[in-house]
Amino acid sequence: QVQLVESGGGLVQAGGSLRLSCVASGVIFSGSIFSLNAMGWYRQAPGKERELVASITGGGTTDYADSVKGRFTISRDNAKSTAYLQMNSLKPEDTAVYYCKMVVVKSYYWGQGTQVTVSS
Predict the structure, then answer these.
(1) What digits encode the pLDDT tens for the residues 78-107?
(2) Cβ(52)–Cβ(42) under 8 Å?
(3) % helix, strand, coil for the chain, step of 5
């Protein structure tokens, strides 16, 4: 089955950096291939709704939430079936569980999430 596994979260001081990874496996079972699928990074802070942080299409077009523009960079390595989120200049308000999402035509898949905690 399709599985997304995030890693790279942790505790960092404000102003620091983290790089999240999301490895996709079993994509063939979705009837697609990784390079065709849009990928997104979302986050959910306690008591708040899950929000889109950044996305990247199969063609490499990126989009960002206003709150992370200029600080976060989404990228992908199709050969490794992996999406990345480079997070720089982290702020305490970036603290959340970060999830990756893969969109396959009319369906989508979620990873289990990775905790990012930014201390002030």
Answers:
(1) 999 999 999 999 999 999 999 999 999 888
(2) yes
(3) 15, 55, 35
